[in-house]
Design a protein that fits this description.
Blueprint: H1 7-13, E1 19-21, H2 27-36, E2 41-45, H3 55-64, H4 66-71, E3 74-77, H5 80-88, E4 96-98, E5 121-126, H6 135-148, E6 152-157, H7 163-172, E7 179-183, H8 187-195, E8 199-202, H9 217-224, E9 229-231
Parallel strand pairs: 1-2, 2-3, 3-4, 5-6, 5-8, 6-7, 8-9
């Protein structure tokens, strides 16, 4: 936007009939232009940007979206959980729409799974190494699992600000041989890792700052590829995995 010298001329030249903001925070820059040139603004909400899970986060978002509540044409959330959060922030129900995100299924082909009779049983997790992804919780759970099933390993893909904290936990609990931090990978590499794993885990939880999940794409990718998945009762996850219902046998 900063590179467009005359927004009015640009909107007219491009025949712009609506503006879509990819995340809640993006509306701040574009809403004034939408109002000035009478162009409807649609905003997509994906997690923290619509959270009310702590008072501080609730207050911040209520104040942030006052103008958007008045002037926004519509808002989309990636799950019903976040749609309910938007209602708490003052958005009108008739302007809220749930739009689940899709996947390129050619990139995540379904593969029938089976546990090996011997050797490594590989548990995979893919997510940014940040608080709301629950990796300390996952590591503590893996400790208990590994005691009962010593062939298990945990492979974690991605990086993030909590990486050093996780490395310290792994070192202190002597899990270096069983927990491998693999670093960031592209989509094709992740697809290969999903193919070579036996179980997928994501321990999402609400961060101290109120940060929450919508529906993690990593869970969708694992499910599409045929991996059995385990996750937590959090955010929109229960709209993807129904508790005690979506249990697929691993032959």
């Amino acid at each position: 936007m900063n590179e467009i010298q005359d927004l009015g001329a640009f909107f007219k030249e491009q025949n712009v009939v609506a503006i879509h903001a990819h995340q809640g925070k993006h509306f701040i820059d574009i809403l004034p232009a939408g109002i000035e040139y009478d162009i409807p603004l649609v905003v997509h909400f994906r997690g923290r940007d619509s959270s009310t899970q702590t008072f501080k986060r609730f207050r911040k978002n209520v104040l942030r979206y006052q103008d958007l509540v008045k002037h926004g044409a519509a808002c989309f959330s990636v799950c019903h959980f976040l749609a309910d959060e938007l209602k708490k922030l003052g958005f009108k129900e008739d302007k809220i729409h749930v739009l689940y995100g899709g996947l390129d299924l050619d990139l995540y082909p379904f593969v029938q799974r089976s546990l090996p009779n011997e050797g490594e049983i590989r548990i995979l997790s893919v997510a940014r190494l940040v608080e709301k992804k629950g990796f300390l919780t996952l590591l503590k759970a893996f400790q208990r699992i590994h005691q009962e099933y010593p062939r298990t390993t945990l492979h974690i893909i991605e990086t993030g600000k909590d990486e050093e904290k996780l490395r310290i936990f792994i070192d202190e609990n002597q899990l270096n041989e069983r927990v491998i931090l693999r670093g960031p990978m592209d989509s094709n590499q992740i697809s290969n890792e999903l193919r070579d794993s036996h179980l997928f885990c994501l321990a999402s939880e609400t961060g101290e700052d109120g940060d929450v999940e919508g529906i993690p794409n990593a869970l969708k990718e694992a499910m599409a590829s045929g991996l059995p998945v385990i996750s937590t009762f959090h955010g929109g996850v229960s709209e993807l995995i129904e508790r005690k219902k979506n249990r697929l046998p691993c032959s």
